[in-house]
Amino acid sequence: MPNRRFDVLTIGNALVDVLAHADIEAIERLGLVKDAMTLIDEARADILYAAMPAGIESSGGSAANTAAALASLGGRGAYIGKVRDDQLGNVFRHDIRALGVAFDTPPSDSGPATGRCLVFVTPDAQRTMQTYLGAAVTLNPDDIDLATVAGARITYLEGYLWDPPNAKRAFLKAARLAAAAGGEVALTLSDAFCVDRHRDSFLELVREHVDILFANEDEIKSLYQATSFEQALAHVRKDCKIAALTRSEKGSVIFAGDMVHKIDAEPGVTLRDTTGAGDAYAAGFLYGYTRGTDLVTAARIGGIAAAEVISHMGPRPEVELAQLVHNALGPV
Questions:
Q1: Is residue 57 within 8 Å of residue 17, measured between CB atoms?
Q2: Of 22, 110, 164, 285, which has the maximum CB count within 10 A?
Q3: How many whole angstroms separate alpha carbon 154 and alpha carbon 156?
Q4: How many independent structural domains does the chain possess?
Q5: Which residues have a Cβ under 8 Å from the Cβ of 120 and sit 6 or more positions away?
Q6: 53 within a domain of the structure (yes/no)
Q7: Is residue 190 part of a domain?
């Protein structure tokens, strides 16, 4: 793989996450769809925020979380996403740059406020997300910088970005630029309900533009309308170069051509919050992949990163992932 300025460029919805514990009764009382991501407007966001118990706030968004985990591993990352020039936008910009991630997308000086994602974490450690996209929907093709895309080995796209029309066009521009520059394109399907909304166009995207596909078991079954994980596997192996599929406590499965690798989940993990698990897994896998490791090692790194994130509240690492990987695998 040619030497580039960045290992991975991630593109997604720039959001500030608000996470709080909630019981099942609260989920039902508020009329939320459990374990799913639902798009809401600003008024609904204000109502739900007022109803949330005390929690934690942190810069988030799926692709930004991947960039944060990549930085914790020692990778070179860049990020493209849209915020407003408001307080939350300034917080987001500061947080991601402080990690060493390049973030140069100009903020909006008018229009919607910086987006936020309200995350209700239930006792089963699953997360129910209510997302006000805000300024994230104003991401447009002009925000996709050619030099940044060309400087990345892999351009990683967040499936949630497929909802806003302008962002979708930006998404496709980035994929085409990456391919033209000799880079690779990775996609995370993000959420089974997101796949339900865009199944046909997602399939077209995967077949025409994607080299590396990330999905969990529910997402890949939704993409192919499969009744079993095994049935979905028979389809996905025909559609992209590499598929990295996570299965929670069952670990992950990696497809590459005719090769199939099954990797166990990391042992001894106390599950507290699954928010950001897939984001961290993708960061670990891509970190290993861009360093030329074999796919099993790349998946092991992904599993180590995901295990750290699910062991605490919040979607980003609380300890240095590079040290955890070194302790488990030695130098990478």
A1: yes
A2: 285
A3: 6
A4: 1
A5: 20, 21, 22, 26, 27, 30, 32, 52, 127, 128, 129, 130
A6: no
A7: yes
